[in-house]
């Protein structure tokens, strides 16, 4: 009862007990059945155990003892486990089938997610007008199945949006697939679910399901031509762009300026909700703060410390990067 009461308080954007799609509902149903079944077993075992205190000693012949022992071994050790595991399988196998990305008449949207130490690369290979790339944010259409093709760039990570279902390993050299669907527009939390190094816990992903029209508008605003215009050629930000080309361009892409691949794509950085894969909220001055203190905020991340760059340069870089918001 206590467990039941405690679980009733489970909600929030990363709770599996608050499903927002069919795959997650299937998984949570199995979870409740297993909890119920496990609770019944716990009560039975406890009852038997308490019964042994109450039972009077009886004298039996060795043959009687053996007969009783055999009954318990066959009943409790073979019949009960076989029956209960068969029942769970009969329920679990069809549920597992429903989670597979089987062919559909209308092929679903494909979104590629690539795990890095410690951030997320998100790619939309089928976007109209050309592939769209972003990082640490995943916008998906609501009310329709979406196939996620996931892999790891360096070590094994795992893609997990608890309220939509999952999770699935992101293994270097291998493309794993999972089909998820969000019932309606909403924001979800996602988290790397496989230990991947010192900052594993700080590998969060912002997931937002939006209507079809909004989704297509979001993609269109991130076409290379649009992003190139966004990076600008005005006088005001020229020093920032120069500093970017000197210090950042070999690792980061900003459409129209650079094509670095080692770090997150920054072409639409200003439109994201957080920095450093969920380390801090995106607000005015946040990028500059991150550029100055990122090794303190997220120790061990792969971006070198910027101690050798002048504060004024970091500030102009931060101010310009924040303008990259389609
Ligand atoms: Cu990536 Cu844990």
Verbal overview:
This protein has 326 residues and is α+β, with helices and mostly antiparallel strands. Among the domains are: 2-98, no CATH class; 224-322, Immunoglobulin-like. It has eight helices and 14 strands. It has helices at residues 2-8, 22-54, 62-98, 212-220, 224-231, 238-247, 286-297, 311-322; strands spanning 109-116, 119-124, 132-135, 137-141, 146-152, 157-161, 165-170, 176-180, 186-191, 204-210, 253-254, 258-259, 274-275, 280-281. The strands form five sheets. It has a five-stranded mixed beta sheet. The chain has a three-stranded mixed beta sheet with strand order 4-10-9. A two-stranded antiparallel sheet has the order 6-7. Strand 11 and strand 12 (258-259) form a beta hairpin. Helix 6 (238-247) packs across helix 8. Dinuclear copper ion (CUA) is lined by residues 115, 118, 157, 192, 194-196, 200, 203.
Task: Please state how the strands of the largest beta sheet are arranged side by side.
Answer: 3-2-1-5-8
Oligomeric category = single chain
Measured between the Cα atoms of the first and last residue, the distance is 50 Å
Q: Please state the CA-atom Rg, rounded to the nearest Å.
A: 27 Å
Topology overview:
Blueprint: H1 2-8, H2 22-54, H3 62-98, E1 109-116, E2 119-124, E3 132-135, E4 137-141, E5 146-152, E6 157-161, E7 165-170, E8 176-180, E9 186-191, E10 204-210, H4 212-220, H5 224-231, H6 238-247, E11 253-254, E12 258-259, E13 274-275, E14 280-281, H7 286-297, H8 311-322
Parallel strand pairs: 1-5, 4-10
Antiparallel strand pairs: 1-2, 2-3, 5-8, 6-7, 9-10, 11-12, 13-14
Helix pairs in contact: 2-3, 6-8, 7-8
This protein binds dinuclear copper ion.
